[in-house]
Amino acid sequence: MSDHHELTITRTIAAPPAQVWDIMTNRIEEWWCPKPWRAEFATLERRPGGVSTCTMYGPDGEVHPHPGTVLAWDEGRRFAFTDAIVGDLEPAGPFMIGIWTIEPEGEGTRYTAVARHWTEDSMQRHAEMGFEHGWGACADQLVALCENR
């Protein structure tokens, strides 16, 4: 474990980085949350400081809004969001910083999703909530889209 209280998911995708990036960013709603849940991004400003407004909808009528701020948007390489800042620079109860990165690996792409937490307790809570299963399912959905499975 690192000082960042990180949880990580990694996948190797048999597709070039440009294709993976295109699908990651332009088809984000198709892989962002584990099926049968679905995600809708009302706003996703692709720049540091940009607004991210995502709502996740569950199969039994659950509705979970996830407002946040884009911390990094490095075109073709990575993006990062946090829920610690919402609206017009309004502090919120921080849970994590999410970082999604791709990089060339052999003839494909290495995808890494990292959740950094402020405290060990919040990291443990996220793990117990099903981080590995949930974020792993999202990664697998992205792999399937990129590899056309």
Describe how the helices and strands are arranged.
Layout: E1 6-13, H1 17-26, E2 38-44, E3 51-57, E4 63-74, E5 78-82, E6 85-86, E7 90-91, E8 97-105, E9 108-116, H2 120-128, H3 131-146
Antiparallel strand pairs: 1-9, 2-3, 3-4, 4-5, 5-8, 6-7, 8-9
Helix pairs in contact: 1-3
Could you walk me through the main structural features you see in this protein, from its secondary elements to its overall organization?
With 149 residues, the protein is of the alpha+beta class. Helix content is 23%, strand content 41%. It has three helices and nine strands. Strands 1-9-8-5-4-3-2 form a seven-stranded antiparallel sheet, covered by helices on one side. A two-stranded antiparallel ribbon has the order 6-7. Helix 1 packs across helix 3 (131-146). The radius of gyration is 15 Å and the shape is globular. The N and C termini lie far apart (33 Å).
